[in-house]
Specification:
Chain lengths: ~260, ~260, ~260, ~260, ~260
């Protein structure tokens, strides 16, 4: 119930950025007619295909496929907010102190975050604190590594795309220069040649590099929540006072955003 | 009273830089007539809009909105100077030793800096040194992180702006090359196409990158004052001799600027 | 038997990348006839020869020759997968506990990986744990250094190739500009001049830089398997329980890929 | 007396570099007449003014004014050479051991370096070793920071100058393209437009960046001498044998340059 | 006798690289006649002179003169190979154990490497191990620093050369654009203008940057041999068993290249 709303909420700034950026670019292209001049399938294929080709040579298949998992973070808000997690953990702390850790089983279905669920289940199964901490932290490390790799792959695509655009422009220029019989065709031929550079610049600067940037900040936020959950679960398990638990978890939150429930 | 003047003083070098830089550029544009050639709303919208779009995709909304808070540092001098803070702390030290820490309540209204005020209030409330230090240092960390993020966002804008300028120029060139029927229009069309590159270069090199630079140096200065305040408050709380307090705090000041009050 | 299949399996993503990248580029070059325009032996020799020349001046001969050994990693999957290594080590652990370490001699021919073989032979020869660990770790370090050098050399080639392309284009332009008597030859002459830049961009962005990238990730994977083997052999030698051994080795594997055999 | 000569000696390599670099550039500009073509006050004002403007926005005023103090290091040799400092310190060591530390007062006027003078005066005043070391080391840190900031500001100028040159060229090109009525004026107009790029490249590569480089190496040398002085003074104060003192100080000098006086 | 051959052997890869690189470039320039078009003394003087000028402003004279000492490493193989050094040290170890350290004096003339000679002489002179280690390690540090500075200066030249080439091209373009009366002279004038860019690219990418790269790898190899010598001499001095000495020194050699003499 708690997370039904926050889960899947779109990332507002990504959507605003896309509308703003592409809206202005497309309206600039269309201004004074001629929007169709900017669409050229072979040119797009050189830039997109060349970039994908370079990335496939550059990374193992498993890493490239893992990008899809990570890329959704660009469009969707972080599923579990720190404040919700803190509130849930305080609730659990109260239940655990009153009715014992096994009573947390009823809480399990309320948790939508799989990492959180796993941690609580391990606690209910009676896994020792040291083992529980090790298991969750190892998983955290692999999540961090997957995020890092996702951001790095988009960064690499942002570096290759302009080069592929330049390559396409050189192909177009060579063709144009080789057949300059008809002067009236030089202009349009050169325009088409420039399109690949244009695609390369757009792909890099409005898609790949900004996505790499957002993945980095999103990853930091998601890892902070996961660390908060690990600390919270260990604290619940050790039977900490809910008040002390809240104080501990607040160190993960900026002072402005702290809301005490006491 | 103490801070009435220093607070809100404009940053002289920023103002000089703007007058110098933009003055020369604008006078160069206007020289020999034709200043209006350089103003083109659609071109400006591509560069500014594209840069904003890329930054919105690149950062979460909360970080982008936080930039406003930080950006004022570029135009206003640091509100609280080290020498004023040292003088205030020495005063407090004397009062605390003579009349007890509670007597500092009268001093509170003299302090205009919110971080300083918070520290003194915590001291008056009798918060223990360890907790006081932890609270203020956590706040310091969050301020530092906000500053770092502010400088980084301006740096990112400085990197995207020239790319957006190039993108706009490519749009203009493609349009020009596609309709070269009237030779006399080629010159002006190309001039307009170059305008976006021009805007991108100016935005990056006279606005975004220098602002990023100033935010970095300003942030360092502001954090030094805040650290000085934390050390000073802890020293006042522990009842240090004012002379020793001054010596301690002078390690935060360059030897040339140290003015002993003893 | 175990490794017969995994050994020598081609790296799928490299092959896909080459087909994708070069396929699209070549089809773009050939589109509308004129594929032969893009093949020019002297131009290719300037770029390839210049890059090789610069690399030979830049590195000692032994390092350059060592690249060949490393470069095969780009086209072939890592020979020994972590799961296979773990299964082998658990088998060995069971045999060693039941029949003694000398009984592992029969297992030797099943191991195709030379590093793994060397480790098991040292164990059978009764080398002490400390010495065994030191010998294998030193070899690991030299493998890592050879990998690092391989990736660095390809990165250096990726940096020199575009410069050599530009150099070739300048040579072509100077020649063209020196003999502009026949206007009809200007176009083709300039096209040929641009070819070297084109070759430089392709070599760097579809070959050298992506290969450097894959060598880096492949090296990390190979070193992880080798570290797993060292830990596994030391554990077998000390007579660890197979279950504990599996748990130890699973820390080298992402949680998703762990398959317990118990 | 000792330092009369070494102080203020011009830095030979800077002077040679200026003569070489600018001599060749100016003779190349003048070759075949037309030196005046390269002087254009408005173009120079855009590049110099724009760069200064950007630097003023980028740095606080105090840091910019501090550059002047540091920039003289580019033209003048380091005032105090290591060998002179070592000889002076050995002399002092002998005097101090024979006649006591107070006898060093006669030596004071021989020392021209203010840092050295300050150290000796503190020693004569009987400041304790720990305090003396702390005072001199703090001053050393602030000198190092001022040097670092000086080199950084010149580096920043070297980065902004070519961008300002490009901005000026774009202004010139837009103006030229907007009024192409008279074909004979296109050439000279474009030549003038290129002048700002030319100024930007020269300023960055023959002035700002090389100066930043020299400030870095000079700073390292000056800080080494200051560290040598701190060690030497502490050694004199503790009454070390002159022979041991020399051996200690020789660790600051390259083996080739060590000249023992014993 | 031992080193007569290895000393002064040319570095094969440098020579191959020069032949390959320059051979191809020069044959490309000469192809179809017109090799002389590429030689232009004033153009070469701008690029070479400008680069030298910038480097002289950038570095103190002593560092620039020190480059000559280091640059020979690019053309000559490392004088003392690790295997030769190990064999020599094992011989010495046997002699020292049989006849005493003084008996090593006869071996001195066999050693051609001055660093090795110095180490053995210190040992014969009876310098204590701690002092011997300190003296040799200090010398090692200064050698490393001189190497680092040598590579850095070539790297700096590689960065300045293309900028000087661009500066020369701008000078040529301005001159050409200022006197466009004779259309037939435009081509050759532009060709000459491009020559400086061409020289800058060649100097940077076929000379300065590859040399900087080789100096770095050569330096690493030379420092490894020197460290091996220090360890070896200390081991001989302490009377280690030759077998143990060999084992110790083999940790400096890649496993593939180890050749035991026992």
């Amino acid at each position: 119930m708690f997370f039904a709303q926050s889960r899947g909420a779109m990332d507002i700034s990504t959507i605003l950025g896309i509308i703003f950026g592409f809206g202005l670019v497309i309206s600039a292209m269309g201004q004074g007619g001629g929007l169709t001049w900017f669409f050229n399938v072979p040119s797009a294929m050189i830039v997109v295909g060349g970039t994908i080709g370079a990335v496939f040579i550059n990374y193992p298949l498993s890493d490239i496929l893992g990008v899809a998992k990570v890329a959704k973070n660009v469009f969707f808000q972080q599923e579990l907010k720190t404040e919700t997690a803190i509130r849930m953990l305080i609730d659990m702390s109260k239940i655990a102190r009153r009715d014992g850790i096994l009573a947390l089983e009823n809480k399990l279905e309320e948790i939508k975050d799989p990492f959180f669920t796993k941690g609580v289940m391990l606690m209910i199964d009676g896994v020792e604190p040291a083992a529980l901490s090790r298991i969750l932290n190892t998983e955290l490390e692999y999540v961090a590594e997957r995020h890092r790799m996702g951001a790095e792959i988009f960064m690499t695509m942002g570096n290759f795309a302009p080069a592929m655009g330049m390559m396409g422009t050189l192909i177009g220029l060579v063709k144009m220069l080789m057949q300059m019989d008809d002067p009236s065709s030089i202009g349009p031929a050169m325009a088409v040649a420039l399109l690949t550079t244009f695609y390369g610049v757009i792909l890099a600067n409005l898609i790949f590099l900004p996505i790499a940037g957002k993945l980095k900040t999103r990853s930091a936020a998601e890892l902070t929540v996961k660390q908060l959950i690990i600390h919270g679960i260990l604290s619940v398990q050790s039977g900490d006072n809910p008040r002390i638990l809240e104080e501990k978890l607040h160190s993960f939150v900026s002072p402005d955003e702290r809301k005490s429930t006491f």
